[in-house]
Amino acid sequence: MPSLRVKVDGLDLPNPFIIGSGPPGTNANVISKAFDEGWGGVIAKTVSLDASKVINVAPRYARMRAQGTREVIGWENIELISDRPFEVWEDEFKKIKDKYPDRCLIASIMEECTKDAWIELVERCQACGVDAFELNFSCPHGLPERKMGAAMGQCPEILTEVCQWVMQAATIPVWAKMTPNITHITEPARASLDAGCHGIAAINTILSVMGVNLETLRPEPTVEGYSVPGGYSCKAVRPIALRMVMELATMMYGGGSGSPISTDEHPTFKGDFPDRSLSAIGGVESGEDAAQFILMGAQTVQVCTGVMIHGYSLVKTMQDQLLAFMEKHNFETIEDFRGHSLRYFTTHAELVRRQAEVKAAEKAARAGIVTKDTAWEGDKFVEQSDKLVSNQDE
Ligand SMILES: Cc1cc2nc3c(=O)[nH]c(=O)nc-3n(C[C@H](O)[C@H](O)[C@H](O)COP(=O)(O)O)c2cc1C
Question: Is 287 found in the same domain as 326?
């Protein structure tokens, strides 16, 4: 029987499935539910020191369904970070860790660009016994108006500074969560890793406008007749998340562009951050989805919207599906296949070259021309020899 256990940055998780920061980790009650159902870890809803500045609106979600069905494929939110007082969170972090000492509780934190605020936030969370941090440099709506979230994540220089502050104070693992609303996601990731962060989490939501109501002519979600672009999640974003995780893994672990990892051809090409971790997020709802992110290099896989649609028991199905995939391929551990598929990315020019090579071989075979020694046949030996003669007419 394969094992789903994952050891990452010194954290020991029973499986790679982590609740992504958002409503499914928004208070002690729901976090307890997640642990009871068997989630490998929980990243709590993002906290900041002064929750009085966080004022949410309703409605704040909008859904996209597949045409003609009830299936939800896209989800937009204009929700902010936690609006619950930090003192309440401190109390709940302690209570959760008292109740689940062996389970992995990760605090997602965000602050304004002030050294004292970040250090205070880190130290106070740590004092509550949380196991790791995720730095929210990625919320794309509302918070950037206060120069927080994605506003920081889009500026590698600021990230370097903030990550250095955090790393001065942190005594537990730190993951930096990236925004996809940027041309090259590897740039802020590199800045965070250079500043000492243990790992990268990606992606947060993609800035979006869900649609326009053709009766009222107002964009959705509509609050008192007005709207604001929000964050898009759910299975519709998965291909984009896979691409960004692939780019991050290639930068961190190697592979891609015709340079496969861990092969005889390239035994030493390891990427720039081979020992750092990668937590993948975006549209995961099944064990098969998770397997794809692990094949792209991730150690852990986070789920947020999927839990809002299917509930906490989703983790049981996902574990069964991931185990079935591993059994089928004879993989014993997550590490056995992590990053395996990165080696199959290359350049377009290389695709063209490979295709031309195959076509030339097929053409030669059709014409009966021997291109490999294995193609020689006793009955056609003279004919095959003849076809290889250069000066046919002499
Ligand atoms: C309603 C909602 C609230 C969210 N709040 C947060 C948050 O507070 N902090 C954060 O880092 N990400 C937040 N996210 C982003 C998710 O953690 C995740 O990165 C994103 O939704 C993509 O994953 P998914 O498709 O599994 O939801 C939120 C997402 C949703 C849908």
Answer: yes
Q: What is the DSSP string of 257-310?
A: TT--SSSSSSTT---S-TTSEEEEESS--SHHHHHHHHHTT-SEEEESHHHHHH
Residue 347: Cβ-neighbour burial (10 angstroms; 0-12, 13-18, 19+):
exposed
CATH number of the domain bearing residue 90: 3.20.20.70
Beta strands 230-233 and 206-208, pairing class: antiparallel
Whether 43 is in the pocket of ligand 1, judged by its Cβ within 6 Å, is no
Can you list the alpha helix ranges (DSSP code H) found in the chain? Answer: 28-37, 86-99, 115-127, 150-153, 156-169, 186-194, 238-253, 287-295, 305-310, 314-329, 348-366, 381-387
CB of 79 within 6 A of ligand 1: the answer is yes
Q: Which residues of the chain have pLDDT under 70?
A: 256-269, 393-394
Q: Are residues 304 and 374 in the same domain?
A: no
Whether 376 maps to a domain, the answer reads yes
Compute the distance between CA of residue 326 and CA of residue 291 in angstroms, rounded to an integer: 9
| The pLDDT value given to residue 257 | 47
Specify the pLDDT at position 256. Answer: 53
Respond yes or no: is residue 139 known to be catalytic.
Answer: yes
Range of the domain at 354: 349-387
Active-site residue (options: 104, 125, 139, 155):
139
- How does DSSP assign 38-70, residue by residue? T-SEEEPPPB-S-GGG----SS-EEEEE-TTS-
Neighbours of 379 (CB within 10 A): 7
Measured from the Cβ of residue 185, the count of other Cβ atoms closer than 10 Å reads 22
* Nearest protein CA to atom 12 of ligand 1, as residue: 21
pLDDT for position 265: 52
**pLDDT recorded at residue 394:** 65
Tokens of 356: 């031309």
Verify whether ligand 1 is closer than 6 Å to residue 343 (CB atom): no
285 and 377 in a common domain: no
Residue 15 sits in the same domain as residue 97: yes
